[in-house]
Amino acid sequence: MAAPDLQNPPNGTAVLSVSGHHDHESHDFQLPDSGGWITFPFIAGALTGLTLAAGGWGANLIVYLIEEFNVKRIDAAQISNVVSGSSSLFPIVGAIAADCFFGSFPVIALSSCVSLLGVLLLALTTLDFLRPEECGLASTLCKNPSKLQFSVLYSGIALAVIGQGGTRFTLATMGADQFHKPSHQAVFFDWYFFSFYVSAVISNTVIVYVEDNESWKLGFAITIAFNLIGLVIFLLGSRFYRHAKPQGSPFVNLARVFVAAWRKRKVLIPLDNEDYYCNHQHQGPVKTVTATAPTKSFRFLNRAALKTEGDTRFDGLIAKPWRLCTVEQVEDFKTLIRIFPLWSSSIFLATPIGIQVSLTVLQALIMDRHLGPHFKIPAGSFLVISLISTAIAIPFIDRILFPSWKKLTRHSPTPIQRIGIGHILNALSMAVSAVVESRRRRVAHTRHLPAGSLTPMLGLWLLPQLVLVGVGEAFHFPGQVSLYYQEFPTSLRSTSTAMISLLIAIAFYLSTALIDLIRRTTMWLPEDLNAGRVDNVYWLMTGIGLINFFGFLVCAKMYKYKNANEGSINNGSDE
Questions:
Q1: d(C-alpha 133, C-alpha 128), whole Å
Q2: Is 548 in a helix, a strand, or coil?
Q3: Which of 10, 37, 311, 554 is the S-S candidate for 26 at Cβ 3.0 to 4.6 Å?
């Protein structure tokens, strides 16, 4: 992974792309309209502060609900899944607001303020009168929180989630908008996710350790400080940013394509390309070549760009926008249709991860988490292993694996190939999780442990499954963002990077529904996990993952990139 040169303009220097190629024609240090690598420290600094804040309250949420609000274990896991789903759903709202109405900068600034307010409310729940009386882990007479206590708790979570949603992927899009060359955008995405994962590792270890071993008050205070620092750093870079103007709602244009095609459904499709309405415009920082004729796929939609009498004015402009669209608008609509099967296949890629995240924390709570006689790993910190694995795997993939791939095959790996590898590793992780849980359950039964007792088995047994899922994420997460940013219409840049967030949201909601269904129809997930069959849940997720992978292969085989040269992770990096 190439480090951006912040001291010297890259003119005449080599900038390493995602797949290990060098680009000697760089001009993205600082353009006349600002932007370039000079903005990266501000984007990365804001991302770091906001990610540390989000992890500070989110990573240990299950433990906080169980130990401080007396919530039952499986219920706490369900709440955490809903929160995680909402955290991934709101980026879509933020992306649409940025693309259509306000632009990225005001959306990020306002969202950072909202998340700060949410964390402040969460910090208030550490006060004695805003949380229920303490309850021992073995006690069955725990006092439930009052309506006021729940109201403050859920209000804080809601505001923190909304604020986090408006920044996470909108920051990624704004950062990519600072560059003209796709190769530099690819490098930016790798460094963006590297910064994201390193920050998540710190929040999931240092802040979680403080919360578990010092006090929740101190932990939330640190979270507030990082949120404020991230906001300040982002605002300090305002004079350097290239601000992309919102283009209005692109969804209206997409709707016009369908309506226009339907209204002309009886019109014969001509052979002459001159009968189609073309538009030669460039939008956003990435220049695109506007098609002069629609492609043959989904030919029904081509009628939307077919000129008929009365569709245009005397000056050649469109007179009836709900009867005539440009070829570019038609092709944009087709792109979304083509990419939808690939996007939807990733829902069941993320669903097992959502279930694994929740169950791993619950497993860790009833396992031996000691490292030596004096140090005990917080249950919420086990998930950091997957983050560390991803943070290590990303530069390894970029600097070693993909250059070797290029030498052997003479082709750079495509984003779809990268996603496919992630599918395989994810399914393997679920299988390993099932094997480890089977062994833990066998140990518990051999010792005839009473309900709620700790299993005399090291929590470190949970590491292999987390390493696998983390390495898998290093493949499929950047691959998906790169694919959507590359393939989506330019008017939907923010929405494209947030599409992965939408599928994660759906996956977490689906994982919540699946866990609820399993609880209603089986005895696999009782309050006492030693009496359950968590291993069967993991085997079920393994099967779902494998079936979904074969469905993904079918979709990938049928998919065609907008431009055959854009198939590599680095569009244009070879030129």
A1: 8
A2: helix
A3: 10
CA distance 122 to 59: 14
Calpha distance 14→2 (Å, rounded): 9
Could you tell me the pTM of the whole model?
0.71
* 19 CB-near residues (< 8 Å, 6+ apart): 398, 402, 403, 405, 406, 412, 413, 568, 569, 570, 573
Determine the average pLDDT of the residues in 17-43: 59
**Amino acid 10: pLDDT:** 37
Copy the structure tokens of residue 572.
Answer: 């244009």
Residue pLDDT, tens place only, 357-405: 889 989 998 999 998 888 888 887 888 899 889 889 988 988 899 889 8
> Can you give 160-178 as a three-state secondary structure string?
HHHHHHCCHHHHHHHHHCC
Q: What are phi and psi of 14, to 5 degrees?
A: -100, 125
| Exposed / middle / buried, residue 216 (Cβ in 10 Å: 0-12, 13-18, 19+) | buried
Rounded to whole angstroms, the Cα distance separating 281 from 239 reads 27
Residue 469 in contact with residue 391, Cβ under 8 Å? no
Q: How does DSSP assign 90-137, residue by residue?
A: HHHHHHHHIIIII-HHHHHHHHHHHHHHHHHHHHHTTSGGGSPPP--T
Q: What is the DSSP letter of 401?
A: I
What pLDDT band is residue 292 in, cutting at 50, 70 and 90? low
Q: Mark 528-556 as b/e (b = at least 16 C-beta within 10 Å).
A: ebbebbbbbbbbbbbebbbebbeebeebb
DSSP H or E segment with residue 371: strand 370-371
Tokens of 136: 């021992």
In degrees, to the nearest 5, what angle opens at C-alpha 433 toward C-alphas 430 and 439? 150
Token pair listed for 348: 């069941």
| C-beta separation of 340 from 558 below 8 A | no
**Has residue 283 got a pLDDT over 60?**
no
d(CA 178, CA 242): 6
Model pLDDT, residue 99: 77
For the chain, helix (H) and strand (E) counts, in that order, are 18, 6
- DSSP state for residue 306 in the 8-state scheme: B
- What's the N-to-C CA distance of the chain in angstroms? 19
SS3 429: helix
50 pLDDT higher than 50: yes
Q: How many whole angstroms separate alpha carbon 253 and alpha carbon 271?
A: 25
45-59 burial, b at 16+ Cβ within 10 Å, e below that, comes to bbbbbbbbbbbbbbb
Residues 305/326, Cβ–Cβ less than 8 Å = yes
Q: For 145-199, how does the pLDDT look when each residue is reduced to its tens digit (9 = 90+)?
A: 888 999 999 999 999 999 998 887 788 888 888 887 777 877 788 788 888 888 9
Examine the pLDDT at 438 and tell me if it is beyond 90.
yes
CA separation for the pair 2, 15 (Å, rounded):
6
Chain centroid offset of residue 430 CA: 20
Nearest by Cα to 193 from 393, 400, 381, 486: 393
Closest CA to 43 of 223, 185, 252, 183: 185
